[in-house]
Amino acid sequence: FFFFKQKTAYEISACLVGSEMCIRDRTNMADHLITFLQDNDINIRRIDDHHVSISFDETTTLEDLEQLLQHFAKFNNKETIQINKIIQEETKYITNYPEDIKRKTHYMSQEVFNTIHSETQMLRYMNQLVKKDISLVDSMIALGSCTMKLNATSEMMPVTWAKVGQLHPFVPVEQAQGYAQMLNELVEWLKIITKFDAVSLQPNSGAQGEYAGLLTIRSYHEARGQNHRNLCLIPMSAHGTNPASAAIAGMEVAPVKSDANGNIDLIDLEEKCQKYKDTLAAIMITYPSTHGVYEDTIKRACEIVHQYGGQVYLDGANMNAQVGWTSPGFIGADVCHLNMHKTFCIPHGGGGPGMGPICVKEHLAPYLPSHPLIKTGGEKSFGVISAAPFGSASIFPISYVYLAGMGKEGLRKATAVAILNANYLAHRLKNHYKILYTGKNGRVAHEFIIDLRSFKNKSGIKEEDIAKRLMDYGFHAPTMSFPVPGTLMIEPTESEDKAELDRFCDALIEIRNEISKVEAGEWDKNDNPLKNAPHTAEVVLSSEWNHCYSRETAAFPLPWIKAKGKYWPPVGRIDNAYGDRNLICSCPPVQTIFEANEEETQK
């Protein structure tokens, strides 16, 4: 910064954001400067005819800075100054910080930051962390409504390429023609899959896709002089995030009942549409429903909403049960979002990454998200939904490779196998657990719900006990108490073979046998493998064992667990409710930190 101010024909007019500076070109040749630097593989940002900005981050090296300075000097016909000389001249500015902003406290004093000093140690430390977690490396993850399918290595490889992962979202478009081609092809494929007419890749998550879709609908109504349409209907069988998205989009929310089979109650829907006919903006539906059923009245539901002037938003959470066989456009929806991190193989969990592009019918296309720097979206757009024009574009190659590799028939087969796997599990489990909802033919979609509520009265066993006990069998629990309290929602995806499905079924069936022993009084209601689950290695190998069941029952309830290799839960049962309500710090005790700071202050 000081060099530009003192040594060149430029002056710093503002420090915009810490690591970015805006400089003024006294020669009024900003465009020529930008072109000159681009010819030397350097991009800077144009502010206006007289100003440009340059940003730096933690990846900027001294070599990068020296190259930049050399080109600035060359452009201005000035003598090149070596970076080492600049550092020597400006050291006083770099090191002579005012006392009041100097840090006086310890930082990164935890043991982990001060004991690992070699790659070997780091490798072992990371592997210790891996062993604490359970992933698809260990077993299937049957989280309902999450679609935890395989993320194939071939799909993931492009993300590691520098030309994919290190391209700035605002580079000149002529420098990103490969990206543009990939994204354009991806858009065309998504239009075919959804039977929609336009796509925005901008939303960064499913929830952001919902928000963007609803804003698109609101903009459509406003453009037609119907600003008063601000009510969104949410069926009880829809996805759980829908009410929140509608509220954030500035809409009022009204629920629609489910019938005895878990489907949208068409009578209640029509009554609500009639009641709110003047303010109805949209309905948010999920298909198949979050109850795991293909609702055969879904097209009629869309017709009713359209009849009263509303738009139909289809939540793409369950697209893994549609691709290649049906589509949101065919069903009658006007807009949907797609969870690329579920249906189209981008890994997810732990907060990201994710992508939630929205697809719309032609009449909504003019209102799609736009961007001030890169042309995208509609001419009547409501504005920007993400900072970058195409969201987290660097992870789109995962979905691109997945779709290109699968092809039309491959995608159809994947959907069919996902549905087949779910129905196989439901068929094997139906004599042991109640399948809460099925279609008219007794089948389920790509996921289903088992009802555990009856166990509580007879044995005291709750859904949490079964979820924890599955850890002893080496499985991650399915989705618990959503969308119905006291249940588990199971989604196997197409990634699992019959052998893995059978292991999962065997585990749940054996757990049902364990519940029967509690019901029969063979095991105590408060001291049994389910209430004490999960069992850690420390507990099982302890010299004391005061339970009414054996150590082998605790840790190896089925023979194949020994043969396959035991997954040991890293911790035992925790109090979930207490943890949700109380902040528990894993850092050193406050007294330790206080004493360390006192010691530093005295020095």
Defining key terms:
603 residues; single chain; 4-stranded antiparallel beta sheet; alpha/beta
Q: How would you describe what is shown here?
A:
It is a single chain. The protein is α/β, with parallel strands linked by helices and 603 residues long. It has 23 helices and 15 strands. A hairpin with a 4-residue loop joins strand 1 (10-15) and strand 2 (20-25). The longest helix is centred in the last third of the chain and has 34 residues, at 396-429. The mean pLDDT is 91.
Task: Describe the main β-sheet briefly.
Answer: 7 strands, mixed
Strand order of the largest sheet: 5-11-10-9-8-6-7
Radius of gyration: 29 Å
Kindly name the structural category.
Answer: alpha/beta
Weakly predicted, low-confidence segments: none
Instruction: Give the proportion of residues in helices.
Output: 40-55%
Distance between the termini: 34 Å
Number of helices: 23
Residue-averaged pLDDT, rounded? 91
Query: What characteristic shape results from the CA principal axes?
Result: globular
- Strand percentage lies at 5-15%
Instruction: Please report the total strand number as a whole number.
Output: 15
Spell out the blueprint of helices and strands.
Blueprint: H1 2-7, E1 10-15, E2 20-25, H2 30-39, E3 45-46, E4 51-55, H3 62-75, H4 83-95, H5 112-115, H6 119-132, H7 153-156, H8 162-165, H9 177-194, E5 198-200, H10 206-223, E6 231-235, H11 242-248, E7 252-256, H12 266-275, E8 280-286, H13 298-307, E9 311-315, H14 328-331, E10 335-337, E11 358-360, H15 396-429, E12 434-435, E13 448-451, H16 453-459, H17 463-472, E14 479-480, E15 487-490, H18 498-519, H19 537-540, H20 551-555, H21 559-564, H22 576-581, H23 590-602
Parallel strand pairs: 6-7, 6-8, 8-9, 9-10
Antiparallel strand pairs: 1-2, 2-4, 3-4, 5-11, 10-11, 12-13, 13-15, 14-15
